[in-house]
Design goal:
Helix content of chain B: 55-70%
Number of strands of chain B: 0
CATH class of one domain in chain A: Mainly Alpha
Number of helices of chain B: 6
Radius of gyration of chain B: 32 Å
CATH class of one domain in chain B: Mainly Alpha
Distance between the termini of chain B: 95 Å
Strand content of chain B: under 5%
Radius of gyration of chain A: 24 Å
CATH superfamily of one domain in chain A: Fumarate reductase/succinate dehydrogenase, transmembrane subunit
Shape of chain B: flat
Helix content of chain A: 55-70%
Subcellular location (chain A): Mitochondrion inner membrane
Membrane topology (chain A): Multi-pass membrane protein
Family (chain A): Belongs to the CybS family.
Structural class of chain A: mainly alpha
Protein name (chain A): Succinate dehydrogenase [ubiquinone] cytochrome b small subunit
CATH topology of one domain in chain A: 3 helical TM bundles of succinate and fumarate reductases
CATH topology of one domain in chain B: 3 helical TM bundles of succinate and fumarate reductases
Number of strands of chain A: 0
CATH architecture of one domain in chain A: Up-down Bundle
CATH superfamily of one domain in chain B: Fumarate reductase/succinate dehydrogenase, transmembrane subunit
CATH architecture of one domain in chain B: Up-down Bundle
Oligomer: heterodimer
Pfam family, one (chain A): CybS
Strand content of chain A: under 5%
Shape of chain A: elongated
Chain lengths: 173, 164
């Protein structure tokens, strides 16, 4: 079973040769890529969902190109940020207000929130549901909102009493 | 009409219909659009409503929910502070603290618990996720043990924070 190298933007991981053979055996010009077909098996045929000219139109979601910045590096960064919040919150609680702790909180917490919101957008507001433009609009809106939050934290730390002091004062008011 | 040998060789169709279509492309265009619209209206099988409540997915959903809630509150505060002066609703730490001071004690304790519990749950469950990322406690038993530990710790710490 010779596997030919397909220069396709889709991520090709070698699926079962039997599935590939079955898909290739079916008619080549009018092969149907159904909703529930294995993505990798379909990709191995060399055709994308956009090639389907039969009853089912192209699926709105396109498998994204493999990119470590969005893959394992993103995962590493997310965990690193989460781990760093443990000593940060501990220091803030034990030591009280300090410019370094407050500045770090004002950066790390908004970015952590952004990553969480981004995951929720990916899961619930994906292109298949809200359209490609809708997903892009929501993603960029989220980025703008995070930038605003970062700016607000910076302003508060710079001109007001700082995040740790605020929590302390408001909590014991 | 199909009794004669000649008639039987002919395909029976009502008068006026086209059996063979000469314009294939328009027929395909006509049939595709409403099908796509119908696919968008397809019913979904029940999923969350029928799956047995379990600590695994309840806590996972609650982790996301509390994360979203606490983050939304944080963003609202930070963005409100940044843009408040623009719309005349500017506030600072002093005004916020003075408003809180006017609230009765019982309401304050209740509100502090309601604010603290999502935060503590998300914190401890986040640590549970980080422990999983080191491949520890990745068994059914481990998941349940850490799950109960998180539930206990988060409740106790939230009560403690509410009473400060």
């Amino acid at each position: 079973m010779a596997l030919r190298l397909v220069a396709s933007p889709l991520a090709i991981s070698r699926s079962s040769p039997r599935i590939v053979a079955a898909l290739r055996a079916s008619s080549s010009t009018h092969s149907r890529v159904y909703f529930h077909a294995s993505r990798n098996a379909a990709a191995a045929t060399g055709k994308t969902a956009a090639d389907v000219t039969e009853v089912y139109k192209a699926v709105a979601y396109r498998q994204p190109t493999p990119n470590q910045l969005h893959g394992s590096y993103h995962w590493d960064f997310e965990r690193l940020l989460s781990v760093s919040m443990i000593p940060l919150f501990a220091a803030s609680a034990m030591q009280g207000a300090h410019p370094i702790t407050d500045s770090l909180l004002g950066v790390v917490v908004p970015i952590h929130c952004h990553i969480g919101f981004d995951a929720m957008v990916t899961d619930y507001l994906h292109p298949g549901k809200v359209g490609v433009f809708g997903n892009k609009a929501i993603t960029w809106t989220l980025r703008g909102v995070t930038v605003l939050a970062l700016y607000g934290c910076y302003q508060f730390n710079a001109t007001d009493i700082g995040l740790t002091e605020l929590v302390k004062k408001a909590w014991t008011a | 009409m199909a009794k004669t040998a000649f008639a039987k060789t002919r395909f029976m169709a009502p008068v006026g219909t086209r059996i063979l279509s000469t314009s294939q492309s328009t027929q395909k265009e006509v049939t595709v659009a409403p099908l796509i619209e119908q696919r968008k209206n397809r019913p979904l099988s029940p999923h969350l409503t029928i799956y047995q409540p379990q600590i695994t997915w309840y806590m996972s959903g609650f982790h996301r929910f509390t994360g979203g809630a606490v983050a939304a509150g944080f963003y609202a505060g930070a963005i409100g502070y940044a843009l408040g002066p623009m719309v005349g609703l500017g506030f600072d730490a002093a005004s916020v603290t003075s408003v809180i001071a006017t609230v009765p004690v019982a309401a304050k304790v209740a509100a502090k618990f309601i604010i603290a519990y999502p935060f503590t749950f998300h914190c401890f469950n986040g640590i549970r996720h980080l422990i999983w990322d080191t491949t520890r406690f990745m068994t059914i038993k481990g998941v349940y043990q850490t799950g109960y530990a998180v539930l206990g710790l988060s409740t106790v710490s939230a009560v403690a924070l509410a009473l400060i």
